[in-house]
Amino acid sequence: MSVQEDITTFLTSVSPAPTLSGATSISEGIDQVVLPNLISEELQLALNKEANEEDLVKAIESCKDLILENSQYSLERKVLVRHLIELRLKLEEFREAMTDPQHPQNKSNTISSRSIKGHHLKLQPLLKNTHYRYCDHCTGTIWSVVQAWYLCEDCSYACHYKCMGSIMRECAHVIACEKGQYEFNICPEVGMSAQKYMCAECNTHLVLTVSEGVVSCLGKLLFADKEWSDIRRCDYSGLYYCSVCHWNSSAIIPARVIHNWDFKAHPVCQASLQLLKVTVEKPIINLEKLNPKLFSRVQELSLVKRLRRELQGIRRYLLVCRNSIDKHLLWKCDRPHLIESVDLYSLQDLMDTYSGDLPSKLHNLVDLYMKHIKCECEICRGRGHICEVCKNEEVLFPFVLTAVVCEGCNGVFHKTCYERRKDGCLRCARFRKRQELNEKEETNNNGVLGKTNSESSSKFN
After folding, report:
1. For position 184, what pLDDT does the model report?
2. Could you give the CA distance from residue 10 to residue 4 in angstroms, rounded to a whole number?
3. In whole numbers, what is the pLDDT of the chain averaged over residues?
4. pLDDT tier for residue 13 given thresholds of 50, 70 and 90
5. Neighbours of 104 (CB within 10 A)
6. Taking CA 384 as the corner, what is the angle to CA 380 and CA 386, rounded to the nearest 5 degrees?
7. Would you say 258 and 284 are in contact if contact means Cβ atoms under 8 Å apart?
8. 3 state SS of 11
9. What number is the average pLDDT over the span 443-451?
10. How far from 290 is each of 182, 183, 257, 344, CA to CA, in Å?
11. How many other C-beta atoms can be found within 10 angstroms of the C-beta atom of residue 32?
């Protein structure tokens, strides 16, 4: 079974989830169902030693057997399939390193790369950074001068070497890939009782505190032997966290932007913060579907939509022009989705629209491309159109604002000329007339042919 087949099995073995809001609750469920065999196997292969090919093949076969023993849509199977993918990727990397002496794995020590909870952790060299950094697991300071620490290549999760065996948070990149979209409800709070008064990530008991500074709480008095923490709510997921998992960091919430055009930063937990950072440039917001009224109320957004529609028409010309391909004109746009579609936006696109940066950037792109099509390139200019109503020598293109395209024949006319004609499109009228003549000729030919056949049959008789 290949890695691609493993991924396909993973996608079909879990039921689809529509949003990214359940990242922490799903992670909590996974922590509760991980099998002891899997934990020991993961620690052995990921932490304690560098596995050889035989160990990896044996672990893969064992993981396959465990997958078949669990039901199709269970969390246990989800964890196992994910772990199987990691093992097979590690096996492929090991085989590549055996055949290639220049492979990065052959130039590093045996504990430089680890894969835990979807994180691809890389050992960071000493003295690389002089600024302070904090461990995402224990919140302690990482002294990069003397302490070994790891950083996830996908979500920037940082932790001490000693904290690697206790990581509980799923990689934000894995969660984003599995869910595919944001939580589109504003702070979907479920209440403390639904969480059993425990942190949504680490299951630490939470306790309320009185604003005057008096420590409340029956909880601490009656259960003094348990570890308690103050409550902090994440405005993105609506769940409650302890102070270790929620550092009072702030971020712009996609749901508030979509429904209220609100770009004020709100407090979020660390898991949501990493998730929003990973997905900030991914075009996963279909604004036309989620809130189409926003375009009529926000002038900048309406302008961006018009410019993107114009760029989408320009793109069709540039794709078939060899001069634009040689000049790499389409590469001038650092966000390809802006000219490939009209409806999809990233959170960064909406932030730049609010600040005014995106409209000016799109204006510059339109000017650059129009200069190529109208002035510099004879190939693109030759693909233009002439208005058949006014017979003006001005070359028309279907993507400009002053032009209109006939839906019947795809003819291009000036918008004012097309609206003045009450009889409709000239080309369509010619096509209809030609079709009527062809039908009349075909009818006449069929009549002559029938008459000839009848005369020949009568002579034969």
Report:
1. 92
2. 10
3. 78
4. very low
5. 12
6. 160
7. no
8. helix
9. 67
10. 12, 12, 11, 11
11. 8
Query: Which letter does DSSP use for residue 423 in this model?
Result: S
Global confidence as pTM:
0.71
Number of neighbours of residue 396 by Cβ within 10 angstroms = 19
Tell me the mean pLDDT in the region 36-57. Answer: 57
Residue with tokens 């028409």: 313
H or E stretch covering 152: strand 149-152
Provide φ and ψ at 389, rounded to 5°: -85, -55
Residue 218 — φ and ψ, nearest 5°?
-50, -35
Phi, psi of 120 (to 5 degrees): -105, 90
Please state, in angstroms and rounded to a whole number, the distance separating the CA atoms of residues 269 and 256.
17
- Looking at residue 394, the DSSP 8-state letter turns out to be P
**pLDDT (average), residues 264-276:** 95
User: In the numeric block, which tokens belong to residue 108?
Assistant: 């590093």
Name the residue among 253, 278, 254, 275 with its Cα closest to residue 266: 253
What is the Cα 126 distance to its own chain's centre?
34
Q: What is the Cα 62 distance to its own chain's centre? A: 33
Contacts with 306 (C-beta within 8 Å, 6 or more apart), sequence order? 401
Per-residue HEC secondary structure of 213-257 comes to CCCCCHHHHHCCCCCEEECEECCCCCCEECCCCCCCEEEECHHHH
What is the 3-state composition of the chain as percent helix, strand, coil, each rounded to the nearest 5?
50, 10, 40
The rounded distance, in Å, linking the Cα atoms of 321 and 137 is 53
Residue 135 corresponds to which tokens in the numbers above?
A: 């461990």
Q: Is the pLDDT of residue 295 over 90?
A: yes
Paired with 230 in beta bridges are: 207
* 198 strand-pairing partners: 205
Contact call for residues 377 and 321 (beta carbons, < 8 A): yes
Tell me how far apart the alpha carbons of residues 337 and 154 are, in angstroms, rounded to a whole number: 22
What are the tens digits of pLDDT across the range 155-188? Answer: 999 998 888 888 989 999 989 988 888 999 999 9
d(CA 156, CA 151): 6
Interior angle at CA 396, CA 392 and CA 400, nearest 5? 135
Per-residue tokens: 343? 């409806």
Residue 71 burial by Cβ neighbours in a 10 Å radius (0-12, 13-18, 19+): exposed
**Contact indicator for 362, 338 with CB cutoff of 8 Å:** yes
Residue 346 identity: S
